[in-house]
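Saturday, quiet lab. Running sequence design on the structure tokens for the scaffold JK sent over.
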């Protein structure tokens, strides 16, 4: 997909700098993914605060469908 679109978005429900940073490092450094990128890679993670309580807290804490769509549209418009 990265070869086809020239873009990379890593989405993770964990804190910033967690698994998403590791995945980004693996794709860019070890697999040489930077060769196919037309724009800067991005990560979309949970907010940097304590875990939320209840399902409504998850909505405001973790990336939602709206957040993903907004991030993808922003990358496409570059």
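Result came back. Writing it out in full:
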């Amino acid at each position: 997909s990265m070869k086809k679109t020239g873009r990379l978005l890593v989405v993770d429900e964990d804190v910033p700098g967690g698994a998403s940073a590791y995945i980004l490092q693996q794709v860019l450094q070890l697999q040489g993914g930077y060769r196919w990128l037309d724009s800067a890679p991005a990560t979309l993670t949970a907010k940097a605060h304590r875990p939320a309580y209840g399902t409504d807290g998850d909505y405001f804490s973790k990336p939602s469908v709206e957040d993903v769509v907004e991030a993808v549209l922003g990358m496409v418009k570059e």
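Notes for JK: Residues 2-76 form a domain with the Rossmann fold fold (CATH 3.40.50.920). The mean pLDDT is 86. Ask whether to fix the surface positions before the next round.
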